Amino acid sequence: MATGPEHYREAERLARQALPIQDPACALVLAQLATAHAILADVAVTAASAPVDGSEPGMAPREWQAWNRAIGGKSPEDGEDR
């Protein structure tokens, strides 16, 4: 099973792959797969940011770091873009 960040990256990959395809049916299938992965990524980040016990919002540090890397954010350790 893929994590939210993995679904996000797969959605980006499939969307880029669909752009140059000349066959509309093939491009549509890739676009639909990209959409499905984007939806799964959205569900994962929404669920991960939900309160754990009803009182504290936010996601676990490992999940946040994975999302930060997936979207090309800065690493707190090195301060550089990824």
**Radius of gyration over alpha carbons?**
15 Å
User: In terms of structural class, how would the helical and strand content be classed?
Assistant: mainly alpha
Percent range for helical residues? 55-70%
Beta-strand content estimate: under 5%
- What is the number of beta strands? 0
Given the structure, what is the number of helices? Answer: 3
Mean pLDDT: 80
Low-confidence stretches: none
Order of helices and strands: HHH
> What is the 3D form?
elongated
Major pleated sheet = none
Query: How widely separated are the two ends?
Result: 24 Å
Key terms for this structure?
82 residues; mainly alpha; 3 helices
Task: Give your account of this protein's structure.
This protein is mainly alpha-helical and 82 residues long. The protein is built from three helices and no strands. Helix 1 runs antiparallel to helix 2 and helix 1 packs parallel to helix 3. The two termini are 24 Å apart. The mean pLDDT is 80.
